Amino acid sequence: MRVYRRLLQFLRPHSWRLGGNVGFNVVAAVLDGVAFTLLIPFLNSLFGLETKIAEGMGWLTVLQDWLIGPFLDPAQPMQSLRAVILVILAMVAIKNLFLWAGGQFGASLQENITRDLRATVFSHMQRLPLPWFGRTKTGQILARILTDTEQTKIILAELATRTVQNLATIIVTVVILFTMSLRLTLVSLVIAPVVMALLQPLLRKLRKGHRRLRNEYGEMTSVLQEVVSGIRLVKSFRGEAYEDERFISASARYSGGMTRMQRLSLLSGPLTEVLGTVIAMGVLWIGATLVLTEGSMKGTDLVTFMILVMRLLQPIKQLSQAPTTAQQSLAAAERLLEVLDQPTEPQRDQGQREVQGLREGVAFDGVHFSYGEEAVLQDVSFTAKRGEIVALVGASGAGKSTLVDLIPRFIEPTRGRVLIDGVDAREIRLASLRALTGIVSQDTVLFNDTVRANIAYATGGRYTQAQVEAAARSANAHEFITALPQGYDTVLGERGTRLSGGQRQRLAIARALLTDPPILILDEATSALDTESERLVQEAIDRLLAGRTVFVIAHRLSTIVHATQILVLEKGRVIERGTHGELLGRGGAYARLHAMQDRANV
């Protein structure tokens, strides 16, 4: 029930569509039921029993008399039959027109709710903290946002369209059946509670199974995403056969689970139909007794009653199968709600202060950070004054990237404080804090859009072409951009694969510089560049020192010889600090690392 309640919030904005669907389907069900009751005067005329409307059925008798009474003529039975047929055909045509109109409302309702659900999950996902993305596979994220929202649509289709139509048909038909024979109707209605009671264990098993299936689908998507994004590595290591095995294994687990679920799901249809037929035969036997033994019911009434009962089996069957069909949808909905239940960064943000620029600098005061029991940073303290370049060096896993992630609060200290102009960063509103920071990481991200759109990413047209070009010139990117086929209007392709590594990196620097951030983070920005590209990037960094605090993570020590201070990290601790010359003079860890790189370059 919790899942249904949560999904209802997506239904409320479209309640008018639901109302249209319900209204048209109810009218269609009434027309359908009444059309079938006209079989009574039709059969009477056919067998020459009587040509007047049968009495004793209350409002149904009045309705029949109003619809076809004027057309019944005892002296002309064929004309009477023709009139009844034409009325039935007209009512069926009108009924289907209403069904079509209700279907339009239902289809619009489903797609609009699915769109809203997909947008809500995507928007929420973007605002989750970075650690959530670190522990959740990309394939699982894609499966939840794209596939699970489509699966959730099934339950909306069942509840808002087909179920409404089936319920309306059942209710109208049952009302007519009660009017025709109270005793036979009570016997007929035994089917619904019996079927639902028998299906409950099956429904519970299906729900659990489909939940496992959604996870298996996410694993299969993860393998696919990893292979596509890492296809160069797969080919270079001749890993096609290995990846075949991984994907086929994941696919087989999913297909095996789906087969088991289908086997269970397919039980509901035959079970419902067998039970329904048994009940129908019981009704037929009791009805025959009323006609032949008691004489309390006419044969034509019984035939019409049985036709209505048999017609009732299909909507009852579909209604009883709706919970079975909905189990896969509910499992997908639960996975979506798991994402929506994760607190976002804005929800967790306790900051109240606004900041405009950087006046003094950034300070780390006794900062510790750990993932569970694993300590990543331990008692880190230093100050980066405005306009300084702080270089971070050390072995892989020393904590360099974790340290700079603390500045824009991608993560927060386990203990200690990060201070911006003497204010704890946690007291500053997240959006305000991140507006201070420009980031260029070693993994350059470019989008399948124009060069201009990539440089002015997410700025909403705030910057002119001249400003975009100025940022590109500062990043030493303008020259190669103008050489592209359409210049700044050239579409780069997915992840900017048309450009070299150095060109992609310079575009990323231009993007960061366009917003003129007072804090610039270069996370190993030159680690994958050739000598010429590294020189161009270094020139851009040197040109932008004035009034800007820069944090540089670098493997190549030659790029940080002019840094104001260099911090050497080892296992999360700062073991050395000073300028390039000072650290070389001490002959410690930095000097050894520098000597190793000199020997490697010889």
Give an account of the 3D structure.
- The protein has helices at 2-11, 15-37, 39-47, 59-68, 77-126, 130-135, 138-180, 182-188, 191-229, 231-236, 240-265, 268-294, 299-340, 345-348, 400-405, 430-434, 451-455, 465-474, 478-482, 501-514, 531-543, 580-586, 589-601, and strands at 361-371, 374-385, 389-394, 415-420, 423-424, 437-441, 519-523, 549-553, 565-570, 573-578.
- With 602 residues, the chain is of the alpha/beta class.
- The chain has a six-stranded mixed beta sheet with strand order 6-7-8-3-9-10.
- Strand 1 and strand 2 form a beta hairpin.
- Helix 9 (191-229) runs antiparallel to helix 11 (240-265) and helix 22 (580-586) packs across helix 23.
- The longest helix is centred in the N-terminal third of the chain and has 50 residues, at 77-126.
- It is elongated, with a radius of gyration of 36 Å.
Largest sheet: 6 strands, mixed
Please tell me the CATH architecture of the domain at 2-346 by its name.
Up-down Bundle
- Class by alpha and beta content: alpha/beta
- Percent helix: 55-70%
CATH class label of the domain at 2-346: Mainly Alpha
Report low-confidence residues grouped into runs of 5 or more. Answer: none
Rounded average pLDDT: 79
CA-based gyration radius: 36 Å
Please count the beta strands (DSSP E, at least 2 residues each). 10
Compute the separation of the termini in Å. Answer: 70 Å
Q: What fold name stands as the CATH topology of the domain at 2-346?
A: ABC transporter transmembrane region fold
